[in-house]
Amino acid sequence: MPYNKENKIAVKIDDLTVAYDYKPVLWDIDLAIPEGVLMAIVGPNGAGKSTLIKAVLDILKPIAGSVQIYGKPYKKNRSLVAYVPQKGSVDWDFPTTALDVVMMGTYGSLGWIKRPGQKEKKASLEALEKVGMLSFKNRQISQLSGGQQQRVFLARALVQNASIYFMDEPFQGVDATTEKAIINILKELRKASKTVIVVHHDLQTVPEYFDWVTFLNVKKIATGPVKDIFNDDNLTKTYGINYKVAINQ
Amino acid sequence: MNSAQIEIQLIASLVAIACAIPGTFLVLRKMALITDAISHSILPGIVIGFFITHDLSSPILILLATATGVLTVILVEFIQKTGLVKEDTAIGLVFPALFSIGIIMISKNASDVHLDIDAVLLGELAFAPFDRLIVQNIDLGPKSLWIIGSIVMITLSLLFTFFKELKVSTFDKGLAASLGFSPILIHYGLMTVSSITTVGAFDAVGAILVIALMIAPAATAYLLTQDLRKMLSLAILFGIAGAILGYWTAHFLDASISGSITTVLGIIFLLVYLFAKNKGLFSVLYRQKQQKIEVLLLTFLLHLNNHSEKEERHVKHLTEHINWQKVKAKTVLNLALKNNMITVEDKIVSLTEKGKTFTEEAINYIITNKDTEIEKMKDRFFLFRG
Lengths: 249, 386
Known about the structure:
The structure holds two protein chains of two kinds.
Chain A: E1 9-20, E2 23-34, E3 38-42, H1 49-56, E4 64-69, E5 72-73, E6 81-84, H2 98-103, H3 107-110, H4 118-130, H5 146-158, E7 164-168, H6 176-191, E8 195-199, H7 206-209, E9 212-217, E10 219-225, H8 226-229, H9 232-239, H10 243-248
Parallel strand pairs in A: 3-8, 3-9, 6-7, 7-8
Antiparallel strand pairs in A: 1-2, 1-4, 4-5, 9-10
Helix pairs in contact in A: 4-5
Chain B: H1 3-28, H2 32-41, H3 43-53, H4 59-81, H5 87-108, H6 117-122, E1 132-135, E2 138-142, H7 143-171, H8 173-179, H9 183-205, H10 207-224, H11 228-253, H12 257-275, H13 281-306, H14 315-320, H15 326-338, E3 342-345, E4 348-351, H16 353-367, H17 371-381
Antiparallel strand pairs in B: 1-2, 3-4
Helix pairs in contact in B: 1-7, 1-9, 1-10, 1-11, 2-4, 2-5, 2-10, 3-4, 3-5, 4-5, 4-9, 7-8, 7-9, 9-10, 10-11, 10-12, 11-12, 13-15, 13-16, 16-17
């Protein structure tokens, strides 16, 4: 479903400030993300893009501000949200298989103590199939290529069957085929009225992949439809006058 | 075997189980060093507990010492969070401080307290059967058997109850937090269990053996399996094997039991490290050698593919122009021949049809940056590996 003005607000962020050791990395962020958009968060290194996602997902404690998921605090609406962390944030030598990693996506709906059963396994196998990784289900995760690992992470988010997906640089270190496959899945999610928020590095592909964009550099620079606000003015405000260098990187 | 011998082996095996479970998660969380810290820094807790109760197996003492263990972790994290030093330095600062406070307390009261630093560090399994639990004149067995037995039961039931939570928070803290499984709570849960285990085991086996039993079996298991459940079972098995083999080694050498068990654990690790199927040293070296020769083979085939002129394809040319030693050149030539990639007539080497197809496919993968595909190709083309 493409965006239109009547869409509900999926994620609302008010006055969010996050600091590491008293040094603010995100400064007074206000952001309203409408339902059904495929949004890129762009900004230079150290702009606080990952931090923003982590603060929304309750992984980091903000020093000020609030976050609402469909009008309720994150803790109340946790089941509506799925998260794909940066691939480098985990140890891929961990003794486990691709299927098992995807199953971890079902843990949230199970809650504490309850074990995953046949239902969860079936859903995980379906998610693996969607990302084209079914034949790798019993492969140890260190034996997967970077692109395959990213697909497994995506399958783990899909199995959560959420309404909002947060992804931290899903295209980092993946081959062109995987990048295409991932973007197709993200577009399918948007078609199903899901909201997808992606930390993105490659400015060149923003107009092709996304319909919504947020420029971030410690403060929010701009947010809105790509066709309206993805322009020289905002790029310069975010990246400085040398933003063309950033594009060509 | 007399009953004391059986009791000693039983205690050692139970300690092995109690240590292997938290040890596996500590190894996976790259926190092996923290057991070293806990096992030493519980000393002041033990000493204070001993001053109060005058009984090394009193629950109050275990409680106090466990609290000191958790305090160690809190202090280490506090120092680390200042950002002034790294985690290993923080550990190195905290545990000697706490340990030495314990030592000062013992030496100041050495005259009226029967508590020996040697006993704390090294333990004495041989004495464990003498300290018995006697209720209404009925002998229920050694006290340490009961303490360790209870700890094993607690650890096992926590493991079965929270296996999923432990797994997800160990593998992916961020996901665990976003799903609502507090990684901090699980972290401190694990630290508490590790402290209880260390405290419960130190009296019987000593601090050093506790470290060995937590880390060595888990590290050994890690080399052998890619499945967390199997890693846990293997760690337990290696721990028990080390305990029993170590006991009998000590018996025949008339040496310290703790020392022998630790040595056996080290030997088991060494053997697995050398001979493990995938991650073992020999198999890694063998694979490296194989790959090296196969890369040379590919280089050679590419060269043949590039040159039709005879002088470039002469056998001698291998040693002269490509600049390979005779032995190396011969190995490569033989490997190519065995795999039907080349033919040799009058010392002139030519690619076979199979050799051509292989080389062209390989070039294709190299220029499209899909080097990993070449490994799969080898399975299709090679009759013999390098």
